[in-house]
Amino acid sequence: MSRTTLTDETWSRLFPILKQLGIYRKKNLRKTVEGILFRLRTSCQWADIPSCFGKSNSICQSFNRWSKRGIFTKLFKQLVDNPDMEWVFMDGSHIRVHQHGMGVQSITHEAVGKSVGGHTSQIHLSVDACGNPIEFIITAVHVNDIVVAPNLLEQLDLSHNETVCADRGFDSDTLRKLINTK
User: Fold this and answer.
1) Which of 35, 57, 67, 97 makes an SS bond possible with 53, Cβ 3.0 to 4.6 Å?
2) 10 Å Cβ neighbour count for 177?
3) DSSP character for 170?
């Protein structure tokens, strides 16, 4: 089995969630999802997706339609089950936007900013004690970690938490007080 295809076990877990999110069952749904994952893993252009995944234009349209509906965020939230919340780690990381990702002007807000390195986004991520992602927020590069931290913490259940670890970007007395009140 190729590392770019889903295992039957993964698909059996993923399919009911997609169905619940309103993705209808078409005969090539699995190939469409695998095509999207291939494109995300390789960063190739949509037109360069191998034909074994289906028509690249159809895969691109499905990706765009599902993105606008928030399907991927909802899917991520459903796949996070039973996180080990004893320790929570938070950090931010810069992600360079691919040159083809900036060609079209959009009416909707995009989390992209201009930095010395070019067009960049930043992902603010919290992970559980095992290193599994539990929450994230994507912003433009110029948004500081400390600005996003309250929103990130608001999404977390820290009732059974022992420790929250973060780097200097999250360092403030206000944030410490917020963590202690949760």
Assistant:
1) 35
2) 9
3) G
Question: Which structural domain range is residue 38 located in?
Answer: 8-79
Three-state secondary-structure class, residue 145: helix
Q: How many domains does the chain have?
A: 2
pLDDT for 31: 92
Task: Tell whether 41 and 113 lie within a shared domain.
Answer: no
Question: Which residue positions in the chain have pLDDT lower than 70?
Answer: 1-4, 94, 96-119
SS3 state at 25: coil
Q: Is 179 helix (H, G, I), strand (E, B) or coil?
A: helix
- Calpha distance 22→108 (Å, rounded): 23
Looking at the domain assignment, is residue 3 inside a domain?
Answer: no
pLDDT given for residue 1 in this prediction: 44
The verdict on residue 1 lying in a domain is no
